[in-house]
Structure formats: structure tokens, C-alpha cells
Amino acid sequence: MRITDARVILTCPGRNFVTLKIVTEDGVTGVGDATLNGRELAVAAYLREHVVPVLIGRDAARIEDTWQYLYKGAYWRRGPVTMTAIAAVDTALWDIKGKVAGLPVYQLLGGRSREGVTVYGHAHGETVEGLLAEISRYAGSGYRAVRVQSGVPGLSSVYGVGTPGVTYEPASSPVPAEAVWDTERYLDHLPRVFADVRAEFGPGLKLLHDVHHRLTPIEAARLGRSLEPYALTWLEDPVPAELQEGFRLIRRHTTTPLAVGEVFNSLWDCRQLISEQLVDYIRATVVHAGGITHLRRIFDLAAIHQVRSGSHGATDLSPVCMAAALHVDIAIPNFGLQEYLPHSAETDAVFPHGYHFEGGYLHPSETPGLGVDIDEELAARYPYRPAALPVNRLRDGTLHDW
Ligand code: CS2
Ligand code: MG
Fold first, then answer.
1. Distance between CA 158 and CA 53 in Å, rounded?
2. Are residues 198 and 218 in the same domain?
3. Do 196 and 240 sit in the same domain of this protein?
4. I need a surface site. Which of 206, 371, 372, 385 has the fewest CB within 10 A?
5. Residue of 209, 212, 213, 288 marked active site
6. DSSP classification of residue 267
7. DSSP bridge partners of 148
8. Which residues does the UniProt record annotate as the domain Mandelate racemase/muconate lactonizing enzyme C-terminal (predicted)?
9. Atom 10, ligand 1: which residue's CA is nearest?
10. 353 is a catalytic site residue
11. Confidence class of residue 167 from pLDDT cuts 50, 70 and 90?
């Protein structure tokens, strides 16, 4: 079954998304998410200029061979742009294979390992009162796990904290917004917040926190230790993760579980973290880590080292990525948690999908393939708008990690 067309579709139904749609000679189509937040056009050009021309005429059934062809054939391996482009092709080919087989993709991955995919939502608040109200809202709608982000006294804006009840969307202005960061105030304040949250909700609710790469290993060790009484399910991205052996220092001092990986694009970004058991959850995603084929490889390595999955699922990952992630999540033996932020109504309309939330779980679509599509006519009504992620500076102006 030959590939006859591959279209790169940009749309902005409230935020930017890049989607690849592959068409085969017998009319079967597949979709893959190719969105790289703030760098969308780089992936779109990579696909249009370098990938689509070599896809035309290839056998759509050869998923592994196409993956190897694009990875090894580029000579320049890895990197977020390349791996997001490969992911889009890979995801679309899995979609096609499922449709041809008449099976949802998770059946091709070995079938169900669980009844539903446990998800976590984002609770955030400038004040503890606002935060507690947000967490109650999640708990009341069935969530078993909630990520807790709080304002810090003395800082005017902090990662992950926006208007209550409104989905946090950091990429907005064409030029990066700038905020001021203060590690000491954060390290002082956060344990107090978690003391209040745990006292209010008791031991049943899973609590998570995202540091967003802002600490050094010894600062992260201090934070992990100070949060131990509140039994977090995970502390996310405590430090930038280029230096994988830096996690040894954190591990030496705290039993707070660690989750890392949303910016990873290949197994080589986390091989040491996983094989030395320096993290507990690996948060790589379908869209940024080479598609279903490569993500499965990462999760298999993780499984033999007792590391669980915790895939990234912010609103900059389109419903196409979410649909694909759920097929992986339901099938793998070492699933941990899936991040879930509902998309806007406009986005849901552009990407009709069959997955749904019920009682704290997401359920993948049962229709053949991924169970998601893109409405190209509707997508065309929302033209691309440049939007960059913010940056962070210390009080003296030094550029820090966002
Ligand atoms: C994040 C994201 O969801 C998360 O855990 O850290 O909000 C992240 O900042 C964005 O996806 C960046 O594109
Ligand atoms: Mg994160």
C-alpha cells in the first residue's frame, strides 16, 4: 500500500498545532502530531522539505523500516526537530496500520494491560486558599492525582500558576515574556504549601509537583527531603537533565520519587537515568520522542529497571498525540500516570477524537487506528500565530532555566 500524499497542516485554534496527514493509494489516511511548542515552523519545514518528498511511493505498512530510514538516513541523528518529524510519520503509519487491520492501535501493541489510564490534572493558585479550592474541584470530578503549583510570596509570576479555572498556556506573546525567579523564596515556601495540602486532603490523593528545571542537584536534594513528610508521587524536572549523572547527588539525599523527560527526544537522553535507577518515572512523549515505535523502546528499557511511564500531556501536545499516548499507556506493563489537560472546545472541534475521560481515567478510542482525525477545512480557519515560550531571569538579570 503506497503512500501517495503527505500534508503538513498548521492550525491555531487557540494555540498552534502542526499535524501530518499521510494518504495511501487506497484512500486510507493516518495522522501524526508534529507540534514543537514555540518552534513549530522548524518541524513543518523539516517535514515539507526533507521528509514528505521521500515518503511518496513508500510502503505505508513498513513502520519500522521507515523509522530507521528517516533516523539513519538523515545522518544527523536525534534532536527535537528531527525526532518530532519522525514521530509524526511514525504515528500516522500506526494509525493507518490500525485502520487496515480493523483494530485500535493498542491491540497491535499487545492489547490492554489495564482498564483505564490514570491521569493527573493541574491545580494551581497564587494563594493556598485558591489552590485548595482548585484541588477540591479535581478531586470532586474523580481525579486520583493532581499536580500542585503555587505562587511564591515576593514573585509576581511563577511557572504553572495562572488564572484559576483557566488552562495554563505559557506560550502566548511572539517575543518571550520575562519573569524573575528566586530559588531561596521558593525552597522556603513550597514545603509549607504541601503541608497545608496534605493536611486538607489526607493520604489518598496522589500529589505531584513540577520544578521545571530550576534547581541545582543539591537544591533539589534539599527540596526532595523537605517534601518527604507529604509523600509526593513525584517531583518533576528538579534540575535540567543534560547532566544525567547529576541525579546521583539528588538520589543520595532523598526518597521523594523523581520524574523527568518531557524535553527528551531519544533513549540516549535517559539511558543512564533509567539504567542507574536515578529516576522513578520517565515522562517522554509520542510526539517528541520519535513516535510510538521509539517511545515503546524507551518504556521497555524503563520496565526492566522498575521505572514507570508518566507521559507529558500539556495542551501543546495535540489531541493526535493524546490519542496515540493512550494506546501506549493502556498496553505497556509499566504504566505510571498520564498528564491530562483538556483542550479548548475549538481545538477539540478541529481534532475530532474518540478518547474520553471518566472517573479519573482516560479511555482510548475503540475505533480502528488511533481514533482521532483533523478537520482540514476547520483547521484552515485558524491561521498560525507566532507564540514563544517565556524566559526566566534571576534578580540580577542572569538568564535562568525556565
Ligand atoms: C510542562 C509543560 O506539562 C508540563 O509538565 O512542564 O507545561 C511545559 O512547560 C510545556 O509543555 C512546554 O511546551
Ligand atoms: Mg513539566
1. 43
2. yes
3. yes
4. 385
5. 212
6. G
7. 123
8. 128-257
9. 314
10. no
11. confident
